[in-house]
Structures are given as C-alpha cells and as structure tokens.
Specification:
By secondary structure, this protein is α/β, with parallel strands linked by helices. Helix content is 52%, strand content 10%. It has a single domain, classed as TIM Barrel, CATH 3.20.20.210.
Length: 378
C-alpha cells in the first residue's frame, strides 16, 4: 500500500497492510532533534522547515502530515487565534519554548461585534490589532512570507516525499475560540451568568467556520478537516454545558463536512470519558476521528465507540521525553493490538510531539509502528 492508501483504509474503518503513522509532528520537536535552538528556528521559518524535512528523512518518514509548515509565533495571526504568542529569541531567551499568553482580549462588548461581523471579519478588523506588539505592517509582512513559504517551498518539498496533508484546514471549535479569547475564567462566568451572549455568537461563528472549511476542501481536494477542542469536557464543565454550548454546533459542523464526503478529526484534549457516549448517539458512523491526548482512556473509548468512530493517538508526552525506547515500543504495540486490531486506527502521539522528545524514543515509535504486524485483540 502507498502512504495515502494506508491512511484512506484506516479512515474507511478498514485494516491496512500496517497501521498508518501520522505523528502530530510540530516544529519545536524538529528543532530539538536537529540541535537547533528555538530562538534560531522561530526567527527563521525556512530553517525550521528544513529541520522538519531533515527529521522526516533521517527517521524514515511517516504516512501523512499533521502540519505542512513551521508553526512559528506569527502562525497564530495567520490562523486567527485570539492569543498572544511569546517567541524564543524575540520575547524570551533563545533556548526557551514558545509560550502562549492567554488574556481577556475579547470583551463583553465584542460579542455584539462578533455576531454582526462574523469571526473572520471581527478578527481581521478589530482583534488582530490588540494582539500585535510592535509594527502591524511588519507583522502582516511576516504572515505573508509564511504563506509564501507554505505554498512555494513546504508543499512541493513534502509532495516530493510522497506524503500529503491530512487536513484541508485546522481550526479551533467556536466554543474553544471564545474560551481562549475571553480567558477561561471570564468565559466560564459568561456561560453561567450571561449565556445569552454566548448563544448569540455561536451560530454565526459556526456558519463562518463551515464556510471556511468548505472553501479549503474545495480548493485542496483534501477530504479531511481538524476541529480542536480543549475546554468543554467534563474535566472542566458539567455535561449540561457540553450539551447546550458545544454539542449542537459540533453536529452542524460534522454533518456539513460529512455531506461533502469529508471526515472531521476532533482533536480532544483533557478527559472526555464522560462525554464519549454522546458521539455514538449524535454523529454519523464513520464521519469523525477522535484524536485523544492520553487523558481520555483510548482503550475504553475504543470499547465504547468500536465500529462507529476512528481513532488517532496517543503516545504520551512523558513517554516521549523521559521514557525508554522499550517503553515506547511496548506502548505502540499495545495501541496497535488494543485499538487497531480491526482497523480504523492511526498511530500518533498525545496532542503534539513533545518539544523535548528524545531521538531514540521518536525512532522507536516510528520503527515499531512500521514493523509490528500485531492487530490481535488483547
């Protein structure tokens, strides 16, 4: 099987010749594995891209791409994320990791503007200026250079290696976006004391997101999108919050994509164990992938949603950074046997690759995935 055929088989709930491997590989890991300081990498996207290619080549590659370009600090502006990013070598010491500064950058008054303008226009016309420290024109120029790098270098370089992106687009769920922009504390107050404000904007944000996803799918031909959520699980809120403010809009997004033949990957961080029954009850079979971060028990999730959902995960960060290669290999085998025994499974990591992932552990992850036939239900 080719890389693409292997991934397609898993997404069709079939069992391919071996488990497809798609590490959620990010730039910070590539820099570490290439002995390049974060400060150098974040100030030089071309260098960062070369590091990502070098790791792919030196470690034998994998089956599809989580990200095609370097995720430097300005990527947040390009993706319309309501966050300030502190970059190594610019805002932080050269050897520091990229930091996210969450603050109340969306005000109560902004709810009316979001409802009127939609998220994209609100971000571009109102919010972006609040997030940029320094010259706005220079920040815009950096984003333009990133876009050019992605089109002219990243896409052709990866295509030459025979791997394609998993997703036409990656975005945060509207609920998650509001939580990031209002801040977790203020948004929680809104949910409990001003729910009508939240419910006023969620429909418009959802329509906008579906339109953006649809345009990207049409432009790329890629039949997958990623929808990220890290704030709505029962770890944070009771199920009534999930049911009221997240579930209906997720159904709209997944159904809209599924009507186009597009599978939605739900990148779910924190423990969704109590929320899992909802997915079988409300989403079409085969329309979604659960990409879990190891706080949700992926083996229990498989038991509950077997034959209904696909799964992507979930080598934990601690095992990547302080584990031993034999620990990594054993856990990968457990995943292949326990989650991938009947197909519908993509081998990945928990959330993203750890910035301090040890080279021997990353190699063990990839080599075990490539060589272990397994697939025996434990």
């Amino acid at each position: 099987m080719t890389c693409g055929e292997r991934v397609a088989a898993a997404l069709a709930m079939e069992r391919p010749d071996r488990v497809p491997i798609v590490p959620q590989f990010v730039m910070g890991t590539a820099l570490r594995l290439c002995d390049v300081t974060p400060g150098r990498g974040y100030s030089d996207p071309e260098l960062a891209h070369q590091c990502m290619l070098r790791v792919f080549d030196q470690y034998g590659g994998w089956d599809a791409l989580y990200q095609t370009g370097p995720d430097v600090a300005d990527s947040g502006l390009a993706a319309r994320q309501p966050l300030r990013f502190l970059a190594p070598g610019r805002d932080l010491p050269d050897d520091a990791a990229l930091q996210v500064h969450e603050a109340e950058v969306i005000t109560l008054a902004d709810y009316d503007l979001i409802a009127e303008l939609g998220w994209a226009r609100f971000y571009d016309e109102v919010l972006a200026s609040r997030l940029i420290d320094g010259d706005a024109a220079e920040a815009a120029a950096r984003v333009t250079r990133l876009d050019r790098l992605a089109r002219e270098r990243c896409a052709p370089d990866w295509a030459a290696r025979g791997v394609a992106p998993m997703y036409a687009a990656m975005e945060a769920h509207p609920f998650f976006t509001l939580s990031l922009g209002r801040s977790l504390l203020r948004f929680t107050e809104d949910l409990y004391f001003r729910p009508q404000l939240v419910e006023r904007v969620l429909p418009a944000m959802t329509r906008d997101l579906i339109e953006r996803f649809s345009r990207k799918v049409a432009a790329t031909g890629i039949k997958g999108v990623l929808l990220a959520e890290e704030r709505v699980s029962a770890f944070h809120y009771p199920l009534r919050i999930f049911d009221r403010f997240w579930a209906p809009y997720t159904v709209q997004i997944v159904d809209a994509m599924w009507s186009m033949g597009v599978i939605t990957t739900l990148h779910l961080d924190t423990d969704f164990s109590k929320n899992l029954p909802w997915f079988r009850q409300h989403l079409p079979r085969g329309s979604y992938v659960l990409q879990l971060d190891h706080t949700t028990d992926i083996f229990a999730a498989k038991e509950l949603l077997d034959g209904h959902a696909m799964f992507h995960g979930d080598l934990p960060a601690a095992m990547q950074s302080i584990g031993r290669p034999e620990d990594v290999a054993a856990y990968v085998k457990r995943l292949i046997d326990g989650v991938g025994y009947n197909g519908g499974f993509i081998l990945g990591v928990a959330c993203n690759t750890a910035p301090d992932c040890r080279p021997e552990n990353f190699r063990a992850f990839l080599e075990t995935g490539r060589s272990y036939a397994g697939g025996r239900r434990p």
